[in-house]
Amino acid sequence: MLLDVSRALHAPGEEIPFAHNDCIPPQDIFGEEITFTDVLLKGHFSMLGESLHITGLFTTVAHGQCAGCLKPVALPLEVEFDEIFTRVGRYPQQTEETLNEEDDERLEFEGSKVDLAHLALTLAVLELPMRFTCGEDCEALSGMQPDDQTTHACQKDMPDQHPFSALQQLLTKDQEV
């Protein structure tokens, strides 16, 4: 879906409120399919010269599986955003190649409509956790949590030595290394 910004084009500098529902297709992230529902971008936009300034709040619900027990997990995401879209195609001397050489990461729009799908996808993916968990009480993950032990298995065999004791011996002896 496209956001109509024609009001901002006719009234430069004026902040115009918007609420934009979008759709993010399922994403394959590290071999797991993540889906998104209730995708909403809400905020204000205004035209400043040839740039469209959009600020607001992005919300969605990401759906995946718990890394421990594989139960379905719904994770609400909420991200503030502040982006600038550059208007292209208005001046004949600005070709698409020239603009791409200047900045590959620039968000662009043409005409009076802006596609916010790429922005929504970027905000959603960057906010995802490394792995989904169904909670701290997940039985599968509770066995994976480290105990409050301060010694490791290798230290149980040699309690008086620490991992860098061999290096310490080299430094204390008058040997050339």
Structure in words:
The protein has 177 residues and is α+β, with helices and mostly antiparallel strands. The protein contains 6 helices and 8 strands. The chain has helices spanning 6-10, 96-102, 117-127, 139-142, 153-157, 165-172; strands spanning 2-4, 16-22, 27-29, 32-48, 51-65, 72-87, 107-109, 113-115. The strands form 2 sheets. Strands 2, 3, 4, 5, 6 and 7 form a 6-stranded mixed β-sheet that branches. It has a two-stranded antiparallel sheet with strand order 1-8. The protein is elongated. The termini are far apart.
Shape assignment: elongated
What is the averaged pLDDT score? 81
Q: What is the element string, with H for helices and E for strands? A: EHEEEEEHEEHHHH
Rg, Cα atoms, Å:
26 Å
Specify the helix fraction band: 10-25%
Descriptors:
177 residues; alpha+beta; six-stranded mixed beta sheet; two-stranded antiparallel sheet; 6 helices; 8 strands; 38% strand; elongated
